[in-house]
Amino acid sequence: MRVLITGTEGQVDTSVKALGEKLGIEVIRIGLPDIDLSKPETLEAPIRAANPDVIISSAAYTSVDKAESEPDLARRINGDAPGELARIANVLNVPLLHLSTDYVFPGTKDGIYDEADTPEPASVYGATKLAGERQIAANTENFVILRTAWVYSPYGNNFVKTMLRLGESRDELNVVADQRGCPTYAPEIARALLTVAQKVVADPDPGLRGIFNLTGSGETTWAGFAEAIFTNSVARGGKAVKVNPIPSSDYPTPAKRPANSRLSGDKLYSIYGLRLDPWPTSLAQCLDALATAQQ
């Protein structure tokens, strides 16, 4: 199976490439300068040349706050480009897997969001990601959209690495405690993506297609996540850092964050038998990988 994934330096594409090498699956990463998601017309020729069995749409405009002042650019990358990928996948008669986000929801629900809940983004970023979902559905029936959240890994920029970096020069950190979600490990996303890819390439069953949630098992707050990061780091010889829980109102941002980012993974489990590891388990694996990389 030949997998083409958009992105060359992101957390997910790096994880997919690494896992593909272990499993003997050919993974082709594609990004600048070969394609430019802000110019969807650049996508078709290189994708045709790669001749993939499945396309994974991973790269995106992810600057949540900056999107508030760059809505047109964010919409081209997050909305129009996935729609064009779907059109190309349809022409090539291959499945498209697309990573979306918890930000398609406003975060106001008391319970956990599932795939039947109506999206209602509260930010430009969320609106552009929802636009991408809808353009995909309009251009192909052979798609799987996977909504994820709070992604971290040993690669790229993410909350875990930011906390550890800030902790090097500070004894205390203020971290938001009134937003709840499901930390999700990029290598676990990669495992799910390649499992889903193999199934949809082999089986045309429409029941395998559609929208699914894909997050780590369990939930916490950003402050709780930070506390776990430093507790695990101390156990590995790292520095102890005190985490002070604060409300979101004490840390204003241009884009509104969902207070509730919890996503149910029951549908993915019922259809694919996939459930991601509990986030504390994956966090320990991440810190082990970071420690190994520093040796």
Tell me about this structure.
The model has no long low-confidence stretch (mean pLDDT 97). This protein has a single domain, classed as NAD(P)-binding Rossmann-like Domain (Rossmann fold, 3-Layer(aba) Sandwich), CATH 3.40.50.720. It has helices at residues 11-23, 44-50, 71-92, 124-139, 159-167, 186-202, 222-235, 266-272, 279-294; strands at residues 2-6, 26-30, 54-57, 96-101, 143-148, 151-152, 172-176, 180-181, 184-185, 210-213, 220-221, 242-246. It has 9 helices and 12 strands. The protein is 41% helix and 16% strand. The strands form 4 sheets. Strands 2-1-3-4-5-10 form a 6-stranded parallel sheet, sandwiched between helices. Strands 6-9 form a two-stranded parallel sheet. It has a two-stranded parallel ribbon with strand order 7-12. By secondary structure, it is of the alpha/beta class. The chain is globular, with a radius of gyration of 19 Å.
List the helices and strands and how they pair.
Elements: E1 2-6, H1 11-23, E2 26-30, H2 44-50, E3 54-57, H3 71-92, E4 96-101, H4 124-139, E5 143-148, E6 151-152, H5 159-167, E7 172-176, E8 180-181, E9 184-185, H6 186-202, E10 210-213, E11 220-221, H7 222-235, E12 242-246, H8 266-272, H9 279-294
Helix pairs in contact: 1-6, 3-4, 5-7, 7-9
